[in-house]
Amino acid sequence: MPVSVLEVKADEIMSSPPKVVSESTPLKEAARLMIDNRIGCLPVVDERGLLTGLVTERTFQVQIAGVKPMSALSPDRRVLEELYVAGPDHLKVIQEAFVDSYSKPVSEMMLESPSTVTKETPLWEIAEILLRSHLSHLVVVQAKKPIGIIARHDLLRAYASR
What we know:
Elements: H1 10-13, E1 21-22, H2 27-37, E2 41-45, E3 51-56, H3 57-65, H4 77-84, H5 90-101, E4 111-112, E5 116-117, H6 123-133, E6 137-142, E7 145-151, H7 152-161
Helix pairs in contact: 4-5
């Protein structure tokens, strides 16, 4: 008898093992890792391998738009002044801010305290968390270490396969 989609657990749909980066990894390196592996996020770990944050595609969208880390989402004043005062060099300012960010460590731009689930978390709860929090990814953890990633498309795949 087929298992109901509602009985599916996180460990049945997660991508594992996840690619991870350290807090000191430069943003440029994190971006390259995401592109090369066709993934939308990277858990950030400390020297003990414990989850400390998450770098997502949105991290780079925020950086390109010229705002500060996702945890604050407060605009970079210099960039906004150039954009809204309609200074002729506004594109130059954005480009300078973007180039300056290449060497920043991911710890400066990561989402701190990302939402997590365990491998036993049921699919319905995962869907609820993703919808309620407007997230695209959840980190699956065991003893505070990332063991997998669940993306929104994993929910669709689980539904379609049942």
